[in-house]
Amino acid sequence: MAERSSIGPVEEQRLAFTDPLALAAGVTLPAWALAYETYGTLNAARSNAVLICHALSGHHHVAGYYADAPSNLGWWDNLIGPGKPLDTNRFFVVGVNNLGGCHGSTGPSSPNPATGQPWGADFPVVTVDDWVAAQAKLADALGIDAWAAVVGGSLGGMQALQWTISLPERVRHALVIAAAPRLTAENIAFNDVARQAILTDPEFHGGHFYRHGVRPTRGLRLARMLGHITYLSDDQMAEKFGRKRRPEAGHFGYGVEFEIESYLHHQGDKFAGYFDANTYLLMTRALDYFDPAEAYGGDLAAALAATRAKYLVVAFSTDWRFSPARSREIVSALVKHKHAVTYAEIASPHGHDAFLMDDQHYHAVLAAYLRNIKT
Amino acid sequence: MTHPLKRHDFDVIASWMKAGETVLDLGCGEGELLQLLGARGVSGWGIELDPGLMLAAVENGVNVIQSDLDAGLAGFEDNAFDHVVLSRTLQTVRHTQQILAEMLRVGREAVVSFPNFAYWKNRMAVLNGRMPVSEDLPYQWYDTPNVRFFTMLDFESLCDGMGIVMRNRLVLDERGAIVTEEHNFLGSLAVYRIGRGS
Fold it and tell me: Which partner for A120 in A126, A208, A258, A311 could form a disulfide, CB atoms 3.0-4.6 Å apart?
């Protein structure tokens, strides 16, 4: 077995596109850029490229670390590297920050060429289809005609699924992990509360907070706290925090008393410190709008009928944000039209966040599937 | 672990299918049957609950869906497959009638193989006061995954009652040789090809 280690120091790259991008919202972006990273080597046949699509708060720094920031590990470093399940000795892996993001790709915090000021609320709402279209332009630029695989968890899994629908001839395998074919009313409800927290923050200023030199950190913090609850499982919270109190906490007040409160506050503060509020709004809206079956009268199987990829669909037992039943909808729709599909339902206590964890069985399934992909 | 005799009923099952047809293999284990069928141009999907077996099936490159047979085949549409196979698994399923009805709902026809409890060696074991342990019933009473113990006659009687017709039947002894007479006495493993009654 190959040595299992980090890909090591990596470098962020950025590619500016001058051909306009027409978006689902009816707006055309005249010029735009994507931040990305690559790991491994593109082979001569250009047949070993794998695209990693990120979830709500993710970005292009998927594996390795920066030479000047060795503790800043990529968010899926446990999966990607030499000898790891997504083996960079075999595959050329591309991580990308989506359009509308806040980690280097064009988004609401980037300057609007028309004004020179940050786009803010004027940045168009983008959809999963738009992301796939933008990622395809990056693939063109990198000389990749077809991905060996497109891989993503959660909202990233939705992009992997959309790739197979939008550009069926350009993706051979889709790894759709902890995803859903569309959001439920409950999912949208959670997103709405998160957005309301941001939209009603006095420092949001209708999305133009940049020009006021402030950030709606209170709203963003609440949004993240709410979101974070939905990423965990009841079991895991009970085990990790239970009803534990902080030793220094007082009683009969409203301060931080329970450990779970302290944890959520910490997560909220950390996130609000770096994430852009407009990007958060945009990402949650993209989630709400994602529904490839909509154009087919709600028939997901019909939406997937013309796809040509092979699929690995993975769900986690305690994920209640996108439960295994949602993944099984995708599997049923694929089987209906005789598509090649494998489905793993991983027993995990970690809820939705399990897709980011280094679970032995989960990674063994991914490794086995990826090993069988021809390059 | 691959049962050494599996190959015999797999060859029989494969002979009942044509290239271009589709099959759903319930309890597909490591996917050996699907590999065999795939090599003969039959496209297949397997269902396997056990994580270790499911992983092995992924390693073997077959389509495997991790799911519990006792939860039924609700995710599959009527007539989704040409064949549905339940190989050496019927005796481990609690809801026998439900799984047979479901197999013939999602499949045009079904193949079922199971150990025959009335095989003469099994009868001898019980006469001698012990539960049978054999090639086709390889477990002790306390660790067996089998929850239903039945004979060929029992199965045929159930099919009759459910309006299921038998299209083919192949019976093997403990060594995998074809049994041509006294099936319910000399047969250790029975393979049935069944369909819906008209």
Answer: A208
At A258, the amino acid letter reads: F
Taking alpha carbons only, the member of A363, A375, A309 closest to residue A93 is: A375
A236-281 pLDDT, tens digit per residue, is 999 999 999 998 877 888 999 999 999 999 999 999 999 999 999 9
The single residue of A87, A129, A291, A319 carrying the catalytic annotation is A319
A68 is catalytic: no
Nearest to B65 among A343, A361, A369 (CB): A343
Give tens-digit pLDDT for B49-74. Answer: 999 999 999 999 999 999 988 777 88
Encoded tokens for B32: 């050996």
Beta carbons of A335 and B45 less than 8 Å apart: yes
Residues with Cβ within 8 Å of A64's Cβ and at least 6 positions away in sequence, in order, are: A6, A7, A8, A9, A10, A37, A39, A73, A74, A77, A81
ipTM of this predicted structure:
0.93
Amino acid, res. A359: D
Q: What is the mean pLDDT of residues A97-101?
A: 98
Rounded Cα–Cα distance for residues A305 and B23 (Å): 19
Are A365 and B55 inside 8 Å of each other by CB? yes
Contact between residue A136 and residue A170 where contact means Cβ atoms under 8 Å apart = yes
Q: What is the dihedral of CA A333, A313, A231, A272, to 10 degrees?
A: -100
